[in-house]
């Protein structure tokens, strides 16, 4: 029952004890004129002991919360004290009882639930601090973590190249497995270190002006061997792009493109991959959660769309593909390789750059990943003139 419903039904003091919550009635001077048995159980005072005393004996410095609850018609969580001087936490809701200045206060004891919440918050802060320390450790010791893996890769590759002596078929098979798994481990470490650096805010964008078409082509050239191995087509369409020189972080954009290119090639066995660059309309920018600077235009943003004819993404996996703590279909990961962290890293990098990413996909019918980034410098307003 809400406090307003109670006020309508309330007609005599005897009805106070039938109400499930504690009830206190105060006059215009904040003196207690009535309360029920539930209030006695919460605060420890008998009605005869408390009647006529100021509400401040219970609420201490929270009396103003009564007025807030009364005039804003909202409940308030406040601190109070019982007869023994123990701190308790209560939720109050207030209403004007009649025209002679009396206020009725409905009270729930929420001490236990609030302490549970406080405990959960402390545990969350503790867990967050531990996670941050772990991320900081990994970011700080990245070279030490990668050094032994580099050694394994170098020595195993040297043996495969015949530096020591010619390997027989069985030896070559085992050394190849060592080399492949070491490279996979290095890729996993690289991704985990990047995530750690992002989480500990060690990655700060280095903005400058550069030619976006050169970056797009350059990253494609870096993975041409993968494209050729699969004998698939990779097209780039600049026809809708009206602005080549952009203002952004070249290295971070390169990392985004490399992750998305590699994913598209990895999961496409036949057909075509196509990247198209264009300028999105401002409605699309806003719909993607990007708040535009007031003087930015459509050409202040670039939309990258990477479509492939690959295996697509199952419906049950589409909600978690940007989550570093969940990996989608394990069978697919085992078959196609990779760490499953590329998209999570891409999403976090785009957050740093003020952009966003989304996709459309259907199992067995390919995927299209789209991302938008701002590509114009935000002008710093001039300082106001001062009289010397």
Keywords:
single chain; 388 residues; alpha+beta; Beta-Lactamase; Heat Shock Protein 90; 3 domains; five-stranded antiparallel β-sheet; five-stranded mixed β-sheet; 14 helices; 44% helix; 20% strand; elongated
Summarize the helices and strands and which ones pair or pack.
Blueprint: H1 3-9, E1 22-26, E2 32-35, H2 37-43, H3 47-50, H4 56-59, H5 63-72, E3 76-81, E4 87-96, E5 103-109, H6 111-140, H7 142-160, H8 169-199, E6 207-211, H9 212-222, H10 224-230, E7 233-237, E8 245-249, H11 250-266, E9 272-278, H12 282-287, E10 301-308, H13 330-336, H14 342-353, E11 356-361, E12 367-374
Parallel strand pairs: 7-9
Antiparallel strand pairs: 1-2, 1-5, 3-4, 4-5, 6-8, 9-10, 10-12, 11-12
Helix pairs in contact: 6-8, 7-8, 8-14, 9-11, 11-14
Structure report:
With 388 residues, the protein is α+β, with helices and mostly antiparallel strands. The protein is built from 14 helices and twelve strands. It has helices spanning 3-9, 37-43, 47-50, 56-59, 63-72, 111-140, 142-160, 169-199, 212-222, 224-230, 250-266, 282-287, 330-336, 342-353; strands at residues 22-26, 32-35, 76-81, 87-96, 103-109, 207-211, 233-237, 245-249, 272-278, 301-308, 356-361, 367-374.
Can you describe this structure in just a few lines?
With 388 residues, this protein is an alpha+beta fold. Helices cover 44% and strands 20% of the residues.
